[in-house]
Amino acid sequence: MSTFEDYVGTFDNEPGYLNWASFGPLSPSVREEIFADADLLGSGRPSSLSLVAERIGQAQELIGELLGGHAEDVTLQPSSTQGLMHALYGLTGAMIAGTAEFPSVSLTLERASTASDRDLTPRWISPADGRVTPDAVAEALDDDVTALAVSHVDFRTGYRADLAALRELLGPDRLLIVDAVQSFGIVDEDYTVADVVVGHGYKWLRAGRGSGFAWFSPRARERIAPVLSGITGTTTTGLVMDELPAPAASARAFTVSSPDTLAAGRLAIGVRDVRDAGVAAIEARIAEHVDTMLEIADRHGIAVSSARARGERAGIVALAPDEPGRLAAALANAGLVVTARGSSVRIAAHAGTDAATFQLLDDALASFGNETFISA
Q1: pLDDT-based confidence at 372, cuts 50/70/90?
Q2: Which distant-in-sequence residues (6+ apart) come within 8 Å of 27 by Cβ?
Q3: For a designed S-S bond to 268, which of 35, 58, 283, 361 qualifies (C-beta 3.0 to 4.6 A apart)?
Q4: pLDDT digits over 234-290, tens only?
Q5: Residue 373 has pLDDT above 80, yes or no
């Protein structure tokens, strides 16, 4: 792909899909490469296996480029949660995290704190609306705190944490661990202010499940013990036989086994397409789409609980009607794919979401409003 509009043209799903924060339907280029790589693996020839294995390095290079780091600091993981496990299980001290975080953060932190005698203590905060702001973190900060784990973009409200401000608050002696599943590839951010960044390709990158990754800065590697280091994470590059080698000094220490090369290929293509289109351009188009969704919701009197300012949001809009279940049913009946959870209905548009989808949303909310008025 050579231009942003070429990238937008690859969104070939039917109108009505507003569930990108949950799952990104695989892109045409990813689907094409899956079949090509699968054919190579089907031969069993060493040369074919080696060709597909090159996807691992390609993915690391591309992710490192978008993060502003180095490929050798990037590890491929089965999921973002496994990347977080490598980070959290190897830390000590008090770690700040919000109680409203996605379980990849909160549950992993709780399990890590009880898994061993490494003396990791969760320090939970419950800020208003679940928003992990510098002020909320500052109230919990003291000399015992060694790290903060935070979602760059909150999965419920779409609130976008200010990573630069959090970095400044934490200072150089504490680690900033970032779950970027809802932001990597669609938010033009300086991720180098963080120490660990994890992500996954199955949402906004349109690369499918199993395409997780984790980036560990040199400072993170100095302070995180590679507790979960496996056969691929040792000082020995070959097969470990009759010995127990030490963990590698590089980010490779934070791996368990060889990556799935098909997943690596999907991730490499998904990241490549985003890189070629330009993250800033993708972010700008998504911002326009979010403005459109907010305008539609406001016009039809549907309350919104998500962030509105462009600097505090990404691609998620959380609708908060009085009857969320009935609204979710109305949207589904209108052909819209969304996520209904608790008191909100989450909608999320990507750069390639078309006008027909927004028209479906507009019509569905208009009908919902009329029904509400009549029933009242």
Answers
A1: low
A2: 10, 11, 206, 207, 269, 270, 273
A3: 58
A4: 887 777 777 888 899 999 999 999 999 999 999 999 999 999 999 999 999 999 999
A5: no
Say whether pLDDT at 376 is over 60.
no
Residue for token pair 């890189």? 275
Out of 206-210, 211-215, 310-314, 371-375, pick the least confident: 371-375
Calpha distance 76→312 (Å, rounded)? 29
Rounded to a whole number of angstroms, the CA Rg of the chain reads 22
- What pLDDT, on the 0 to 100 scale, is given for residue 117? 72
CA 289/CA 293 separation, integer angstroms: 6
Q: Are 330 and 364 in contact (CB under 8 A)?
A: yes
CB atoms within 10 A of CB 53: 16
Nearest-angstrom CA–CA distance, 118 and 112? 9
Q: Please give the Cα distance from 113 to 47 (Å, whole number).
A: 45
For residue 230, is pLDDT > 70? yes
Q: Is the pLDDT of residue 226 over 80?
A: yes
User: CA of 296: how far to CAs of 2, 291, 303, 360, 371, in Å?
Assistant: 33, 9, 11, 11, 17
